From TrEMBL:
This is Ferredoxin. It comes from Streptomyces gilvosporeus. Its cofactor is [3Fe-4S] cluster. PROSITE patterns: 4FE4S_FER_2 (PS51379). Residues 1-29 form the 4Fe-4S ferredoxin-type domain. The keyword Cytoplasm does not apply. Pfam families: Fer4_15. Keywords: 3Fe-4S, Electron transport, Iron, Iron-sulfur, Metal-binding, Transport. One of its GO terms (molecular function) is electron transfer activity. The keyword Transport applies. Ferredoxins are iron-sulfur proteins that transfer electrons in a wide variety of metabolic reactions.
Length: 64
């Protein structure tokens, strides 16, 4: 699994960090970021739920 956040789309709602805090965080400006080393989802089942929770669909989860 590969996870990415489109920074041009992210509005900083924080739903990703609230839903899957072991995979996502927020930067100093409040925008979502994938935690370093967690780009593969780190086996966290909540990573997909965080992508669904994003109000602007800035998170992509690729199964490749």
């Amino acid at each position: 699994m590969r996870i990415a956040i489109d920074q041009d789309v992210c509005i900083g709602s924080g739903q990703c960090a609230l839903t899957a805090p072991r995979v996502f965080t927020q930067d100093d400006d409040g925008f979502g970021q994938v935690l370093p080393g967690r780009e593969d989802g780190a086996g966290d089942p909540l990573a997909r739920e965080a992508a669904r929770a994003c109000p602007v669909r800035a998170i992509t989860v690729d199964d490749a």
